[in-house]
Model the fold of this input.
Amino acid sequence: MNVKIPFAVLTVLGVLLLSLQAFSQMGMMRGGGMMNMSMIRHQFVMRNGIDSRYASKVNPLQSTAENIGAGKRLYEQNCASCHGLTGLGDGETGKSLIPRPANIATFSKMPMATDGYLYWTIAEGGVPLGTAMPPFKGVRKEDQIWKIIIFLREL
Done:
């Protein structure tokens, strides 16, 4: 039996399947996906930009083995419980959060993730967005935040 399905129907089905996959990967479906990129933060920045105190910041530290190691230790102490040891957003504490923690392993390498953007994200946390991420500007020194960013770029 040879059934002919109109091209338009196939096209619509293909678009729906791709949309569902992308929707899931961006963490928008219940429980978040492996590609959760913190759409709330992304949308906030698209509408408002990055706080001017952070927008033009550039990491003054070099990506040395020493700085990567220090950044890794700081990440494990401050970030891994929510973002996971490998930055996939799958840390034990983060599993109960809505929205789920971002997949920073992937996001930290995207063009939008400038030094200023990442510094702002860590320093201000989820305060501007109303999410659970704590601000680290009063908890960590500036060079410690930069070392975490160096480590994030290595994930």
